[in-house]
Amino acid sequence: MPMKIAFVLILLYSLTMFVPMYYMVVNSFKRVDDYLENGVWGLPRQFWFQNYVDAASLTTGNVSFVGMYVNSIVFTLS
To answer: What pTM, to 2 d.p., does this model score?
Structure first.
């Protein structure tokens, strides 16, 4: 009986980790109209990689998103 309770608790905990990750990854490949028409939980009709290109080309002042990402990696490793 304790193993069944532990299994259920681990399953519930894993859902709290994977559901937001699924939401984030699936919706990152959707266009805005696909997101609004088909809802947030469905798979995209067509995978849209332009979202990643747009995110990589963002800048704040004179620092690009890629530069900020590299800076975070450097500070994490140091």
So the answer is: 0.67
